[in-house]
Structures are given as C-alpha cells and as structure tokens.
Write a structure and sequence with these properties.
Elements: E1 5-10, H1 14-25, E2 37-43, H2 47-56, E3 61-63, H3 66-71, E4 77-80, H4 87-96, E5 100-104, H5 111-124, E6 128-131, H6 138-149, E7 155-163, H7 186-202, E8 205-214, E9 219-223, E10 235-241, E11 247-254, E12 259-265, E13 274-281, E14 284-289, E15 295-300, E16 311-314, H8 337-353, E17 362-363, H9 364-383
C-alpha cells in the first residue's frame, strides 16, 4: 500500500451508498492523522447505479463487476455490500489479492461460509471487519459504558426489538431478501443487528430457546426492473413464493447469566426503522430508542420516590463520538445513523493505517459467532414442540 489508501465499494444500492458516503467523510472527523483517502471505484452489476453512486460521492470511476475490483492494483480497501450469498466468494478473492475487507452484516449465509471466510482473511493477513453500525450510536455506546461501570449492579435481563415495515406491503417486489431458507429473512437482516447490540452490551449469547419464525406474506410479485434496497418498482403478474421469515423472536441466555427476549420484523406496520431495548440491572435500568440515537434513559436509586423513574440523558460533548465526531460538536445538536457509517469507515481506515483512536469494528470471529446464534435460533424454531392450551 502506498502512502495513501485506495478505496472501493462493491454494491451501489442503499447500504453501498452509505459506505461510499462514509469513506468520503472519514477524513473530516476525529484527528488529522489519517493518510489521504483515494475514492477509486464503485462496482455494481447495474451500471447506471454504479455510475450514479460513483459520481455522487466523488469516486474516480465505476465498474460493473466485483472481479474488476479484485484485479485493480490501485485499490487497497474494499467494502462488500451485496446480497449475502455472494459474500464468501467475493471476500475470499479479495483476501487472496491482499485487499482489506469491510463486509456488511450478516457475514455470510451460513456459519460454514463464515468459517471459510475467516480462515481466508487470517491466512492472507489482511484487516477484515464486519459492518455492525449500531455499535457507533452514542446512546448505545454510553449504555455500554454505564453497564461496564457496575454502578447499576449486574445486568439481569434485556428486552429488545428491531421492527421495520419495508416488507409490509404484499405488493413489494420479490428480491434476494425474500429468497432462501427459514432464518435468512428478518432474522438475518435485522436479527443480526439486534443480536450484535445485545452481545455488545451483555457479552456472548450462550444458548437460545423458545424461538419462532413466521412468514406472513407467502408470495411476492416479480419485478419488471432492477430493485434497489427496499424500493418499490413496477411489477408483473407473475409471483414467486417467499422462502424465509417475516417475523423472528427468541429467548436468550448470556454467558454471565443474564437472559433476554429479542424480536425482529420486516412487516411491523408503522415502524420504518425501530430498534429499541431496555436492560434491567440489580439497582436500575437503561433504555434506548434509535429514533433518538444520541440519547438514552436511565432509572436508578437515590432520588425521592415522588420524582424517581426513567430520566432522559443527552450524550454530552465529552463523549468521543460527539467531540471530534460531529462537524458541530456540541451537546444536543443531533446524530443520525448515517454518521455511524462515517465512524465505521474511519475506524476501519484507522486500523489499516496503524492508528488507534476509535474502538475497532466487529471482527470476523464476532461475525461468525453472530451466525452461530442465528443458526441456534433456526434450530430452536424448527425442533420445538407446541403444547395446546386446553380448558
């Protein structure tokens, strides 16, 4: 790698644009120690989309295949932001070419694929990370700090939900998101994030039970054009069966003894993007809602009963994600999920450059563990028995 860092993004859809924006803005936040970043290429099989995303975010060129990124000698760092079933082949080839990889979640379709990818990046000696962006929300980071301080005592239980409605319309076009085996739907797409947040706060999940996977919209119309993200496009009369889950829920036991209940959905009407949780401890509780990502709520002892209860905390300028991470780094100015992609890109580039200002992104080992939890959920949902309630 030369003195600067050449960057590419494979996948020019909704999340791919967020990665492109993150790289473009990475040098504008935190310290001035990052080497120059060259925005080299955006690749997508849809050339119009690749061209437009490259133009919007200032990349030098666009490509129409991921193979072109693998072969390019002016690219050092690559984000992989494509359908999950493509991750293994692309990441393995990028690793063999010596390119550092930031792969979107979930790391792979199966734990076996994730193991092969982990072996490949370790053998290549590259930096390889997984894109769990919610770790970068100031509110979630501050909740983690509260839990680690021990002031509220031992964590006992977490209740978490990640509800969206991008699939609530039965006329939403068929795409790769709706194909695949049970567990590859809402559980993979949204449950991967929620599980990572729960483990980020409480440590590794040890076991799961009581899982349920439900498909409500059983078939969808085939699109007449290219589907980008969750967008609606013109559809035809032909429909295809949906193979995976619209809802997923399960109970978890963490290695330290805490328990939890997690629920995700892509058809939760009225919830475009609702990730929230409550953590109950021995001497208090903490809550977070992604609609206010720079805040959290806390309940603890020490106040008169008449005024005790949950209290709103706006994460202050002393927190590193506010100080130096925002153009206007003042308490209460506001933080959004797009900022998380900037912080994620900056942490990834810092690690490659040998800097140590920000916490690292999730490792491939953590991405593999995330998939092991998902597979345990599928197993629980598949093999559990139902006992009817009788009068």
């Amino acid at each position: 790698m030369s003195n600067d860092i050449g960057v590419a993004v494979i996948g020019a859809g909704m999340a791919g644009r967020a990665h492109a924006h993150g790289y473009r803005s990475a040098g504008t936040v935190f310290s001035a120690g990052l080497p120059p970043v060259r925005l080299v290429s955006v690749a997508d099989i849809n050339e119009d989309l690749a061209r437009d995303t490259a133009r919007r975010y200032g990349f030098e060129r666009h490509d129409t295949s991921w193979e072109a990124i693998v072969k390019a000698d002016d690219i050092d760092v690559v984000s992989v932001v494509v359908a999950n079933h493509l991750h293994r082949e692309i990441v393995t080839e990028l690793a063999a070419a010596g390119k550092h990889v930031l792969c979107e979640k979930p790391l792979a379709p199966t734990a076996a694929d994730a193991r092969a990818m982990t072996d490949a990046v370790e053998a290549a000696g590259i930096v390889a990370r997984v894109g769990f962006t919610f770790r970068r929300a100031p509110g979630i980071s501050a909740v983690r700090e509260q839990l680690r301080s021990g002031e509220l005592g031992r964590p006992l239980y977490i209740s978490g939900q990640y509800w969206t409605d991008y699939g609530a319309d039965p006329q939403a076009p068929m795409s790769w998101r709706y194909r695949g085996e049970p567990g590859s739907g809402a559980l993979a797409d949204l449950g991967s994030h929620l599980t990572d947040v729960a483990e980020f706060l409480l440590g590794p999940v040890e076991s799961v039970h009581g899982a349920a996977l439900t498909t409500v919209v059983t078939d969808r119309p085939l699109p007449l054009g290219h589907v980008v993200g969750h967008a609606h496009v013109e559809v035809g009369d032909e429909r295809e069966a949906v193979g995976n889950d619209d809802w997923a829920s399960f109970s978890a036991r963490f290695a330290d003894g805490a328990t939890g209940d997690l629920s995700v959905s892509r058809i939760a009407y009225g919830h475009p993007n609702t990730l929230k949780f409550e953590v109950f401890c021995e001497r208090g509780a903490l809550a977070f809602d992604v609609s206010r990502p720079g805040e959290f709520d806390i309940a603890s002892g020490g106040l008169p009963g008449a005024s005790n209860g949950f209290r709103r905390v706006i994460v202050g300028v002393e927190h590193p994600y506010i100080a130096g991470g925002m153009a206007m780094d003042a308490t209460g100015v506001g933080f959004g999920h797009n900022d998380s992609f900037v912080y994620q890109a900056r942490a990834f580039l810092d690690e490659i450059a040998g800097l140590d200002e920000l916490p690292r992104n999730a490792s491939f080992a953590e991405g593999l563990h995330n998939l092991l939890v998902q597979e345990a959920v599928v197993s629980s949902a598949t093999h559990s028995t139902r006992t009817p309630v009788r009068a």
